[in-house]
Every structure is written in C-alpha cells, then in structure tokens.
Amino acid sequence: MIILKILLYILLAVLGIILLVLITPAGGEFSYIDGKFSYKVKLWIINIMDSEGGGLYSWWKKRRSKKKEKPEKPKKPKPAKEKKAKKKKEREKYEWEKELDDIPVNDPEEDMLPAEPAAENAESVTAEAQTSVKEEDEPDKKSKKKKDEESDDDFFDDDEEEQFENEDKKSLGDKVEFIVGIWESAQRPLLKIFKGFKLKDLYIDFVIADDDAYDCALKYGRYSVLIYNGIAFFSQLFTVRLKTIDVRPQFGVSRGRWDAAGKLSFRLGTVVIAGAWFLLTYLFRTFIPEKLRKRKLKKSAARQK
C-alpha cells in the first residue's frame, strides 16, 4: 500500500508539472527604437534570455565556460627507481628482438614455384566448363521468357483490365476524399492555434520622409496601405491588441523614423486543445460516416447478388 501511495504521489506531481508547463505562457518582448533592436524571451515571469546578456541561458553559458577554463592539475614526477626499471625493460625487449632477427628463415616462394602451372591448368578447365554450361542454358532461358510472356498475356482478359483501371481510379478518389476530409476537419483547430499567438501592446510610430514633397507623398501612401492592410490581415489570423499606430509624412527631411515595439505570448495548452478538437471532428464528421457509408454499399451489393 505504501508503494502504491508513493507511485500515486509521483504521478500526480508529474501531471501537475505538465499542467503548469501547458498553462504558463511563453513569449517575449521586442522593440526597435532609434535604430536599436532589443528583445527579451520569457517563460511566465522567468527571464530566459535577452539582448543585454542576462537571463538563465547566459548564466548557464558563463558557468559552462568557467568550468572549461579551470586549470588542470600538474602531474606528479615519477621517482628515479621507476625510471630505471622502465629502461631495463626496454633494453631486454631490444635484445630479444635482435636474437629473433638473427634466426635464418626459408623463403616460402621457392617451395611454391612448381605448383603454379597446375593451378593455371585447373583455372582454364573450369573457365571452359562454365562457358559450355552458359551456352547450353541460354536458349532454354529465352524459351522460358517467351512462354511466361505469352502466359501473362493470356491470363489477363479485357474485362479484368477494365476492373484494374476502375480500382486505380477508386483509390485515387479515396485519397482525394481523405485529404479533403482532413483539411475540413483541421481548418478550425488550425485557426485556434494561430489565435493562440497573442501580440499585445503593439506600438508603431513611423515617420515617412523625403526631400521631394511628391516622392514623400507617394511613399506615405504606399507604406500606409501596406501597414494598415497588414495589421488587418494579421488580426484575422492572430490575436492583435494595439497600443498606438501613428504613420505620418514629413516633407523636406531626408531621414525618417521607424519605431516599433510589442509583446508576444503563446500557451502550449492551445496546441493540445486544438489536437483533441481535430481528432473529435475527424472521427464524428469524416471517419465514422465514411465507414457507415461503405458498409451500406457492401450490404446493397450483397443483396443484388
């Protein structure tokens, strides 16, 4: 009983950690003001990393570099007795190798010289035998191939070929229906995932400038259309909450201003919810009705027979 209680507590703790990870929002902050880009990646309140070199990642990196920079311990010098013993072993090894070199050894090549012609004769005999066997087998193989081709042509009738073509068409149709069913089931869960990305406190302050007034007006018109239409498109896909948007022209100035800032957040729980939603919609909308339809077709075909 005690072991079961401990296992139950461990399971509850693991489930609690998983729920915390799924619930806690992950994201960050970004800003581009006066030509300087800065960012901050956060997991709820915890700072993971930022552009100024802070956060958990930079701390872990510094600690790892400090471990690498630690000096190695100096090796202790070996005593004189060990050095002498080592030198004696090396001398004995050298004398033993020298004695082995002095022993006369007969050449094996001289003993094997008379056996060469016999091996050559054997090789020539085997080559002739192989060529004769190949020449005898070639006509038999050709006749077998012709017979097999004729039998294959006789085996398939016109009706059977039509059946195979119909089966291929059905398989292609089934694949297309399968892809369409998945797409119809995944549309709303995908939109749920996209809406899970929340862009908050979006701040845009753009000054479009040019020395020529005509060119400045043209630039202002183009950039304002791009910015406002882009925000409208992104607000349909993602959750966008605006703080201030200011786009204005400035005539007779060569340099403009492009300041922007915002906060981005996302919860992993939205992916889990969207996945469960997709599975349920696919099962009750596409998979089960398709199975029932195929079963009815089979029953009706069996009755007609």
Automatic annotation (TrEMBL):
Residues 123-132 have a biased composition (Polar residues). Residues 98-113, 150-165 have a biased composition (Acidic residues). Coiled coil: none annotated. The chain crosses the membrane at residues 7-23, 43-60, 225-244, 264-288. Residues 65-169 are annotated as: Disordered. It comes from the Bacteria. Residues 69-82 have a biased composition (Basic and acidic residues). Keywords: Membrane, Transmembrane, Transmembrane helix. This is DUF2953 domain-containing protein. It comes from Ruminococcus flavefaciens 007c.
